[in-house]
């Protein structure tokens, strides 16, 4: 356990990670636990359905229901040092001709309203003398919309504005709220799809990945998917900046919004 992961009294620092049953959230919760943090991770599925190992306190809660927030926020019993909002509802939008109202509503609830209202609840419960870094994971999808992605992009754009409001409200508090904007992640599903295409074409996986990135967003200037290690370094960087990270937008997105942003 490093000095950076203990409080002034030597107790482990407390982190809350949402979306901790899968993908980036699960990876982040595992890495924080490995670094000596005391981690609570929240996902929707039951603990028995989370891929092992789960070296942290896992709790199942449906974050689209605001009634769950007081219990999730209060799980630290004494406040949090770091909160990472990674939960997301995709509704498989890439593969569906049109999302229904209910799926779009669920996206807005999980992707935008949950991080906003859960953070407000956390800040309300946080002891006045304990500093809390809140990192909100967002997506380069907020910069672009087409007929498939518009509801998802809208939920992420709403999240960005709600996050800015949270940061403004932290001027007078011992807290910082920052945004981590991510581009295409090196996750299991993308990796499996690209590997299958490479196999079919008899091409190298790196070459297929490079073409996929160029085609999926012409503004991207990276040739590899974004790895979880880089995401974790960025989260720790935002946390290490303390108050100075309030309102900050850290873009680990391969330049996907173009040159000016
Ligand atoms: N993957 C990418 O390429 C990419 C690109 C840019 C940005 N991002 C951002 O990175 C973050 C993580 O994405 P990911 O792809 O790693 O996610 P993921 O693998 O799809 O995992 C989503 C997580 O959110 C949880 N979740 C969904 N609905 C929930 C609900 N109602 N209540 C509680 N938990 C709920 C899921 O729990 P269950 O599975 O248990 O339901 C799961 O743990 C997101 O903010 C996403 O926008 C991802």
From TrEMBL:
Q: Name one Pfam family in it.
A: adh_short
Q: Which UniProt keywords apply?
A: Oxidoreductase
Question: So where does this one cross the membrane?
Answer: none
**KW Transmembrane (keyword) present:** no
User: One MF term in GO for this entry?
Assistant: oxidoreductase activity
Indicate the family of this protein: Belongs to the short-chain dehydrogenases/reductases (SDR) family.
**Protein name as catalogued:** Putative dehydrogenase
Which species is listed as the source?
Streptomyces albus (strain ATCC 21838 / DSM 41398 / FERM P-419 / JCM 4703 / NBRC 107858)
């Amino acid at each position: 356990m490093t000095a950076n992961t203990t409080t002034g009294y030597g107790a482990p620092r407390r982190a809350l990670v949402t979306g901790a049953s899968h993908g980036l959230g699960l990876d982040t919760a595992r890495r924080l636990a490995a670094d000596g943090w005391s981690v609570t991770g929240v996902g929707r599925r039951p603990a028995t359905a989370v891929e092992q190992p789960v070296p942290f306190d896992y709790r199942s809660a449906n974050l689209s229901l605001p009634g769950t927030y007081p219990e999730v926020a209060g799980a630290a019993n004494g406040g949090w040092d770091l909160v990472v909002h990674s939960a997301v509802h995709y509704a498989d939008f890439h593969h569906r001709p049109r999302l229904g109202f209910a799926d779009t509503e669920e996206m807005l609830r999980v992707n935008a309203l949950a991080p906003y209202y859960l953070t407000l609840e956390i800040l309300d419960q946080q002891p006045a003398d304990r500093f809390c870094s809140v990192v909100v994971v967002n997506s380069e999808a907020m910069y672009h919309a087409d007929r498939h992605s518009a509801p998802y992009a809208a939920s992420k754009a709403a999240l960005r504005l709600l996050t800015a409001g949270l940061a403004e409200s932290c001027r007078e508090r011992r807290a910082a709220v920052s945004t981590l904007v991510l581009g295409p992640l090196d996750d299991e599903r993308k990796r499996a799809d690209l590997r299958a295409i490479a196999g079919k074409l008899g091409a190298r996986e790196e070459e297929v990945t490079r073409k996929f990135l160029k085609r999926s967003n012409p503004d991207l200037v990276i040739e590899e998917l974004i790895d979880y290690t880089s995401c974790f370094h960025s989260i720790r960087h935002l946390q290490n900046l303390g108050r100075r990270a309030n309102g900050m937008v850290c873009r680990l997105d391969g330049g996907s919004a173009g040159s000016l942003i």
